[in-house]
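P.,

For your records, the input lines for the assembly:
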Amino acid sequence: MGIQAAAALLQNANFKGFFTGRVSENAAKGVCVPGLNCYSCSGAVGACPMGALQSFLGARPFRIPYYVVGLLVFFGALLGRAVCGFLCPMGWIQELIALVPVPKKNRFRLDKPLRKLKYLVLAATVTLPLFVARTPFFCKYICPSGTAAALFLAAADKTVRSMLGSLFNWKLAVLIALVLLSLFIFRPFCKYLCPLGAVYGCFNRFALYRGSVDENACVRCGKCAAACRMGVDPVKNINSAECIRCGDCAKNCPVKAISLGFTAGKAKQSGSLTPKGGTAAK
Amino acid sequence: MKNRKSSRAAGFVLLAAGAALTAAGLLQGQYASVLAKAIRICMECVGIG
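Structure tokens returned:
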């Protein structure tokens, strides 16, 4: 939580902007941050990779977005979804909401199919600005980070407040729905909707920041899987696309068989295990 | 063990590819394009349209 708070603050360190309603114009604004952080937030000091990507895809004449894609590949190859677990302000906010003591339900029938939704959102985010209209569809209709940015801007600027209409109301409804869902489900936006999480999830298998299970030490007690709020079974697939590297599994392992980090499993035999009476995930 | 080594090697290859793509984008002046977009309020992003 401490790292997440620090990352969120660092990415939104233009504190003056929260009072003036003006976005930062510093040179750092041309650098994409790893997490989802709207660049129209008055506090933002960097660019949102999803916003920047859609901006390129919707621009004419079309240019291949080497810079943004390169940064996404770089962050993905280095950290995978550890970005979601540690650096994304949206993830941190959802975890803060999850601290409200109401019964949580992280395992339910629709959970698995809904996980695929974020890949559809990613596909739409990439293809719609290219082939349908020059609009950043994800930012315009879904992104809760942009809605939060609008709330900050509107609080400081009367003109912005007067311009908010039905589109903002729709986005506010999405934000409220996500806040309410976050009370009962851990990180619903990350699990079901975030296209950036979908991108980084694809890198989890290859990322240098990785997880490892010591085959010889593991007693297959299942405590790691029970502790995982993202619904991953680390023994079956510790480098699952859904793992955000939060470390709950390692903390709950009674024999310390799970390690996470850049050097995870280097000195030990590691990888996916076959649980007793089960089959290893591919 | 072999799989772990090859996925780690793939990680390094991807890291280098990411750095190369970023450098290619920088050479094409794409940093300036991102900056130009990011220093203005994006009307769609904040729900104004």
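Two observations worth noting. The first helix of chain B runs from residue 2 to 27. Chain B touches chain A through 39 residues (CB under 8 Å).

Regards
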